[in-house]
Amino acid sequence: MNKLGEILFKYRDYTPIPFVVAMVIWADASTNSLCLGGAMMLFGEAVRFWGVAYIGGVSRTRSYSTGQKVVTGGPFRILRNPLYLGNFFLSCGSVVAANVGDWFTLLFMVVFFAQYYPIIWWEEANLTKVFGQAYLDYQAWVRGRFLPLMYGQKSPLLEEQELKEAVQGEYAKAFKSENKTLVAAGILLLLILWRSGFLTLGAA
């Protein structure tokens, strides 16, 4: 599982390409699908932006990096993988916007979680190896991987770390870091609109 997670992490930006190509080819967007899918994409990007403001440039690495500390601020107080939750809503929102059918959407969701479960398994093993008890305490405190779940008790070790660091979100850096994601999402939406006839001269 760990080796699979490592491979999928390395190529995580490329594995969605077949879905993106198929989605653009078969796009049949409607006003309703664009509104719902667009709202999902906005929510996903907002979650990503919030997470990147706290975790920083580590989120962009191709080769794995744990960073310098266990991040417990911002959305990481609520769930352990906010960026992956953001990725889900951002990417699934584009599928919904394209209106390519329920089976395609369901298949996308199955493949998404089949990819990210091994990645998370591998990442958590690495974080435990690097940070030891601090990360184990964080897991015991923030129990949800993708969704907020019942909290455990925060350890004195994590409380001491937070007092020392007083971490604040760096939103200007997050915006700079997220430029590529925003551009890619914008281009994808334009392609969906084009294939669906919304950008055709005289289209209703």
Give start-end ranges of low-pLDDT stretches. Answer: none
Sketch the major β-sheet: none
* Secondary structure: helix percent: 55-70%
Cα-atom radius of gyration: 19 Å
Would you count the extended β strands for me? 0
Shape category: elongated
Order of helices and strands: HHHHHHHHH
The N- to C-terminal Cα distance equals 50 Å
**Backbone structural class:** mainly alpha
How many domains would you count in the coordinates? 1
- Percent of residues in beta strands? under 5%
Number of helices: 9
The averaged pLDDT comes out at: 87
Overall description:
The chain has 204 residues and is mainly α. It has one domain (2-195). Helices cover 65% and strands 0% of the residues. It is built from nine helices and no strands. α3 packs antiparallel against α4 (82-98). The radius of gyration is 19 Å and the shape is elongated. The N and C termini lie far apart (50 Å).
List its salient traits:
204 residues; mainly alpha; 9 helices; 65% helix
Topology:
Layout: H1 2-10, H2 17-25, H3 31-55, H4 82-98, H5 102-131, H6 133-141, H7 156-165, H8 171-177, H9 179-195
Concise summary:
This protein is mainly alpha-helical and 204 residues long. It is built from 9 helices and no strands. The protein has helices at 2-10, 17-25, 31-55, 82-98, 102-131, 133-141, 156-165, 171-177, 179-195.
